[in-house]
Amino acid sequence: MKKTIITVVGKDTVGIIARVCTYLAENKINILDISQTIVDDYFNMMMIADMSKSLKPISEVTDDLDRLGEEIGVIIKCQREEIFNSMHRL
Amino acid sequence: MINISEVIETNKMIEKENLDVRTITLGISLLDCIDSDLESLNKKIYNKITSAAKDLVAVGNEIEKEFGIPIVNKRISVTPIAIIGGAACKTPDDFTAIAKTLDRAGRDVGVNFLGGYSALVSKGMTKADELLMRSIPNALAATQLVCSSVNLGSTKTGINMDAVRIMGDIIKATAELTKENDSIGCSKLVVFCNAPDDNPFMAGAFHGVTEADMIINVGVSGPGVVKTALESVRGENFEVLCETIKKTAFKVTRVGQLVAQEASKRLGIPFGIVDLSLAPTPAIGDSVADILCEIGLEHAGAPGTTAALALLNDQVKKGGVMASSYVGGLSGAFIPVSEDQGMIDAVNAGALTLEKLEAMTCVCSVGLDMIAIPGDTKATTISGIIADELAIGMVNQKTTAVRVIPVIGKTVGENAEFGGLLGHAPIMPVNGFSCDAFVNRGGRIPAPIHSFKN
């Protein structure tokens, strides 16, 4: 499994999750978990996704999600899970 | 499984607190390039560097994108050139030709800096060592990426005062040749006591002769992260303070370890060390001085500064050591003046002097760093400053260094502008009393005794 963490931060509007999920589905990226919270009035969403069957490499997905974020008016980041594991798990 | 608050914490460190990997430095041995013919030596050096480092920048950028962590610099360090050029170089100009080759190779592979235009003369100088040292002013004026360092002393050998005297002149000459740009050449020149073989940071990086053919060393950073963490424990006692620094240093270092292992795997080059240094930049909020203020000082330089820095440095190491499988390089808090806005503010406020900075270097790496001094400072005075700083390293069995910039045409009250990561610096006053007779004695200071420690 190639786990990646996708985060969306910005002002809450209708359809953010739908747009991101549609993109992921089109590229055969499987969502394993979704959670969300509000920090300082900003909408924060985190998805754990499995990219092992992804049609595109992670660098391309990162660029696509960057553009999608700009369209919706939020910041979308896609990062490999290891950076969080190494920092927060022994 | 990772939870959302952990993800938010990591991304906040990166986006708001300037967490980054300061450098991936590829160490390359040039020992197999040695040749008695200068032209063929230059050719071999160029070919070795450009083939070894051809993917370095691309791999760095790839890791940066996949993990979402900025990697600010990609650098190269090479075997000290005085060793490599010894057989081929008969004049300082021959060495300068090698510097130009290094610069060209560095530019062609797209790195930010290339270190190793160096000589190791802690006990004595060979003819080649001296030729290289004499070539430094021209070499640094004629190149952009090349960084130079000279190891002038060690705990085991003492201090080579002949070389210290020469380096006073060389620093002045380097300043003179780059006076149009506030003597910026001196920002690429550092002298050491106990120089490490695996330091990834510039200007002092070189690939020691005890190292493998190629190696990946990584330097982490994150003063802003430590400062922010400490904001949440204001007024708490030293135990809480130290625990907070340790935990933060652990997290920061783990990112460095991850990046180092990834880079090593992708480049097929063994992982060397992670350097646990807290390295500031001129960006607001990326300052070691700000951490000292957060610990409880009005300005860096106030009474208590040396103690605060000692505990900070020690806790960073304690947290970092467990986070990485191999720790090395300089591994200490850097206190460069021009590269740290908090330090600049402290100097401008009159809180921080050259003498206090010297005291601070007794408890942390890496020495008097990026300090602008008046352009009319005598060469012997610079040698005296160097001798003092190296004595601290020699006696305390630690690395110390001097990177001072005599800014030609400027004096106390004025500012030197270096730009980029090198920042800007108020020119600091230097004690004007003479040390000519001391510096001009010649010979070496013997190694210190290693027993009777009191």
Structure write-up:
- The complex is a heterodimer of chains A (90) and B (454).
- Chain A has helices at 16-26, 58-72, 82-88, and strands at residues 3-10, 30-39, 42-50, 74-80.
- Chain A starts with a strand and ends with a helix.
- Chain A is globular and about 30 Å long.
- In chain A, strands 2-3-1-4 form a four-stranded antiparallel β-sheet, with helices on both faces.
- Chain A is an alpha+beta fold.
- Chain B is of the alpha/beta class and 454 residues long.
- Chain B is 44% helix and 17% strand.
- Chain B has helices at residues 4-16, 38-52, 56-67, 81-84, 92-109, 127-142, 161-177, 223-231, 238-267, 288-295, 305-323, 341-348, 354-360, 379-396, 436-439; strands at residues 21-28, 71-78, 113-120, 146-154, 158-160, 189-193, 214-220, 271-275, 367-374, 400-407, 415-417, 424-426, 444-445.
- Chain A binds chain B through residues 5, 7, 9, 33, 35-37, 39, 44, 46, 48, 58-59, 62, 77-89, and chain B through 1-11, 62, 65-69, 251, 254-255, 257-258.
Structure annotation, total helices of chain B: 15
Number of strands of chain B: 13
**What share of the residues of chain B does DSSP label as strand, in percent?**
15-25%
The greatest interface between two protein chains, and residues involved on each side, is: A-B, 27 and 22 residues
What count of domains describes the coordinates of chain B? 2
Helical percent range of chain A? 25-40%
Report the helical percentage of chain B.
Answer: 40-55%
Whole-number average pLDDT of chain B? 95
What name does CATH use for the topology of the largest domain in chain B?
Anaerobic Ribonucleotide-triphosphate Reductase Large Chain
Classified in CATH, the superfamily of chain A is ACT domain
